[in-house]
Amino acid sequence: MTIDHRNPVLRVVPGPTDINANGHIFGGWVLSQMDIAAGIVASRRANGPVATVAIDKMEFIQPIHLRDVISVFAEVERVGRTSMAIRIEVIATRDRGATDIKVTEALFTFVALDEQHRPRPVEGT
């Protein structure tokens, strides 16, 4: 499945407090941005609240640098009865927009939640 890179779900610029000892952006910071974007897509698809239940196939391909503009792309890969798999790709734009680099990707699984925070069927499945 190829993600449409025309419209990111989220676009963020990491700050100086997001840098690790190697001078790159913390992996946990990147992961949180991915979870936010995936949650937006999953909540829209489920038409209600969702919870992250798994992250599969996480791969850090390239480091993210300070001053990179991070674009997080997400799309629904599959829908089950109560869960959804959301494919995430993160592209770093650097050199004042001259270079785009895929820096990480993952597959997030979400469960649709009812008012009691229990799994519920995903609408439209």
From TrEMBL:
Keywords carried by this UniProt record: Hydrolase
Gene3D superfamilies: Hotdog Thioesterase
Domain spans labelled HotDog ACOT-type: 4-116
InterPro entries linked: Cytosol_ACT, HOTDOG_ACOT, HotDog_dom_sf, Thioestr_dom
GO cellular component: cytosol
GO biological process: acyl-CoA metabolic process; fatty acid catabolic process
GO molecular function annotation: long-chain fatty acyl-CoA hydrolase activity
Family assignment from sequence similarity: Belongs to the acyl coenzyme A hydrolase family.
Protein name in UniProt: Acyl-CoA thioesterase
